[in-house]
What we know:
A: Rossmann fold; five-stranded antiparallel β-sheet; B: alpha+beta; 18 strands
Amino acid sequence: MAEIKLETVSKTFGSLAAVKDVTLKIDDGTFFVMLGPSGCGKTTTLRMIAGLELPTAGRILLDGEDVTTQRAAARDIAFVFQLFALYPHMNVRHNIAFPLRCQNLPRAEVRRRVEETARLLQIEALLDRRVGGLSGGDRQRVALGRAIVRRPKAFLMDEPLGALDAEFRRLMCSELRELHDRVRATTVYITHDQLEAMAMADRIAIMKAGMVEQIGTPQEIYDRPRTMFVADFIGAPPMNLLNLEAAVHRGLHSLALDGGAIEVPEIQEDRPAGPLALGVRPEHVSFVDAAALRGRVFGTEYLGTTQIVTIVTAYGQVKARLSSKITVQRGETVGLALQPDRLCVFDAATGRALQSALYSGAHRG
Amino acid sequence: MGRTVAEVALVEVSKRFGAIEAVRALSLAVADGEFVVLLGPTGAGKTTTLRLIAGLERPDGGSVSIAGREVTDTPPAARDVAFVFQQYSLYPHLSVYDNLAFPLRSPARRLAEDVIRRRVQQVAELLHIEHKLGNRTTALSGGEMQRVAIGRALVREPAVYLMDEPLSSLDAKLRAELRLELKRIQVELGTTILYVTHDQIEAMTMADRIGVIDAGQLLQLDTPRAIYERPLNAYVARRLGMPAINLIPAELLGGTWSVPQVHTIGARTEHLRISTAHASGPVAQVHWIEHLGDQNHVHIDLAGHPLVTLADPNQPLKVGDRVSLELADPLYFDKAGNRIDVAGL
Lengths: 365, 345
């Protein structure tokens, strides 16, 4: 069990600042996901937690103990890599037992722990099989078993599901999360797949260019993105960002679009005239004939329960998630209503969300 | 579809590799201007079917026709098809322009350079890569490379385009963009496309008709909506829909069913109402709630049987809650897994 803390941690490689002033606290037992595009610094951050890289500045604390300069082996952390390498000439039991054998534990103890681990992963029946003949999923489970069997303080996982196909990845996601619920060891998980992050995380840190953009629960990040980057990175399809020019001030309740007033959560800061982005999630857009905001239907994508309709407006493209029961024609002109209490307003020059009742209001979810 | 000419027609086509029957007596007709997607898991026979049409494989039985002409014994080059592969294979030493022009410069065509120029320009505009024509292909992003690969097929104007998971190597955002683009281009040009994928979103969003394929057999061929709403059997029902349809043993839901022979109830999200209130009906327990932002996947345990459904993020549900289930027009399957058509009863 472990709490992990990073205090203004930075890492530079030559002239490249890979990680800049990252401060975060991961509570004991949390499933913590670091999410971001490739090159955002998430893997470097993980490697510093593991002790595989030394920070250029800052401190790393494991359960309150400063481990910044401690060797990886001394940290009692299990690192699960992108590609699982098993020993092909050994059976499942020996593969899982390997890390314990290296610690010279008594045979009976090794046996007990291996069997307990196999039970946890529901692979008891495979213990005496060769790893060569196993399915992809079972190989992943064995590799996980090898990490769990040591009972480390924390698990660090670097895109462990990256190489799998989509369907199988979904299955492994829920298995990993269920496993976490049983073991409750602090887990730091890295991915660039927002759906994976949303599905598994207790908390998510979104990284961009070496810095943390936002930390929060999946629902917080989804509902109240702090930056346009986060708004656009999360959600499939992501948040729509309508471009407009306006000045805003405290107490403002609406923005002018297409000659009409679009109601927004009360703005709580002043900003002179300049570029703004109005953020709306696809499920908060609906078709209302009388709405002032107009657009032309560019295409529809049927998804069964729902459909995604793409509409071109004077402020940019908007995607709406609507019930499949609604009939929509390509090329037709429609009025768009946006659910007022869910809208975000961003300063498009800085990419930062403007303070509003949405952010200061009751924290749901 | 009301169209007369079949651009591609397969009649009882079979192909075997050693002991494996990759394609079994498969019949399929793709109409002119139609976008047909073959959907199936790895090893279902999708790619083999495309290769049989392209002439890259010879069928063991059956016949292949393209644009009304039987081509079963015709070599690939003489068939009027263009193939787009999963891995874009561009010429790295050539510019985007020369990559696009390449198929038109073949000695067999002998097109004038100004005809080629016009055609390349047109396709580049369609794919929004006109500003990249002078670039080396090695200087392109993944999405741009795949556009060029698709463009190289488009310049040729064949009777049919055969596409083998052309978007699968791209990241999610780009894939979503190109899905919509590809559909727009297909509608604008009225091209005929036979596309194979294991991704149900690609199939649902682009296809005029989906062919669900498994173990070398075409199980059902119909519009996305028809397959989603009226699947032939439980297997097909599971191929479309997110979260996947819940297949619940009828006896778990108790009560008596007015539908004869019913063995399994197929309940998609839109067929299931869950409420924390008192209501009658079967009671289950919330096991896990997966927050996906716009929707929550609620994992429910019904007497040991796991169910997944969507719930409104604003509905106050938490792990451990006991909920009652209510069904609204679900699908019914018999013991063999075939759907029972209740409309016909």
